[in-house]
Amino acid sequence: MEYGKELLVSRISQVRDPVQKRLLQDVLVDVFGELLAYSEECYYNLEQKIDHERRDPDAQNAIYTGVCKKDGLDSASSCLFEIPKEYGEEDGHAPGYLGTLFLACDYVQIRGCMEKRFQAQVETDLGDYRTTVALSYSRAWQKTFSSLYQQFMNNLKQWHTINCPFLYKLLDITDQEGVVPRDAVVNRVAIDLGELSGCVMNDMALVWNLKQEVFQPKVDVAVAGHQSYYVHQIPVEERNAGYLALPEGEDLFSVILSENGLLVRTSKEAHPKLKIITIEPMNPEKDHTALTFPLQSNVRNLRHADRQAMGQPRFLWTKGEVERMLGAYEVFADFELEDIRPDLQGEVPALDFNPFIRVHSFLKQKRKMALILHAKDRQDIFRYEKLFFLLAELQLCTDEYEWTGILR
Questions:
Q1: Nearest residue to 397 (alpha-carbon basis) of 64, 161, 83
Q2: Do residues 354 and 161 make contact, with C-beta atoms less than 8 angstroms apart?
Q3: Hey, is 322 helix, strand or coil?
Q4: Which is nearest to 361 in space by CA: 369, 351, 374?
Q5: pLDDT in tens, 38-48
Q6: What pTM was estimated for this model as a whole?
Q7: Residue 132 CB neighbour total at 10 angstroms
Q8: Distance in angstroms between the alpha carbons of the first and the last residue of the chain
């Protein structure tokens, strides 16, 4: 548009007669000015159309996570739902488990608490007990998210790590002396955490944009080559949502979102009932959950350079390349990239925040790479957890390096 304005001014300045100049100015501004504006709008719409057609293929699988008080849940929300118990909360506890607390403090402080032992007063239906307790990452919630990773793999869908910093503030309380009877119902646990006692938050619930439902699909039999398979058709309303199927006993199946609804193809048997996980698109106007902290996600916004780079092999890791990759994620807005350093000397700390990545990637000796970030908000108690989310994403992109992070 600026070039178009300069062109109009240059044409008008060459006319000497004031009447003709006035008429020409009106014609150029009203006619050609509108034409230029129309052309710019057409080009913009074309760019938007191309962006939509070439959007991130995993956009519908974005996971949003949050934490709130249990009385702050929105029962009418169509976006955020409390993580149900069937995801592992009831059977993932260690012996001596007394309960789970939410500790709203820095990662370094939590690590310090996990290395200590504390005196606690436990109130149960069988009486009160004084014992020593230890804190550790919640096994039940870890199992919950590990189960979700497994479902993505079973559905043969590309997945990314989940940005849920709240998960690592949930700590299991374990009786170290075995004083509390295992069959006792624990009503209250009072722990003396010293200066961190004010950071304890009770009755907290994790929420995400996943909803599990059971459908009765319409089943047809189809034939491909010399093999038959079963096609389960399920009508769906939300076309922008992601879907994961959980057919019991099936090792190999596929899920396709078609014009006729959701199609789940299985090879072993026809399923009269089928569990489906719906990954709902986030719409803040349709949710009134009283979140205790801002919502987090693993959403990334791919630009033209990002889409082009996805199809190109990476032969060299540079600071600019790393910044481009991390810049696609919304959470990276909380940081500034200072540097990357290969061949970091000394012991590299283990990545606590993604056991799935650690187990499958750290099986051999690798060249070490350090990601050095500056957290814009030094008071953000989730900055370390967000850092490890970004590290896990980098680890997924490379097999020759072992990534670690440093906050400054």
A1: 161
A2: yes
A3: helix
A4: 351
A5: 888 888 888 77
A6: 0.81
A7: 13
A8: 43
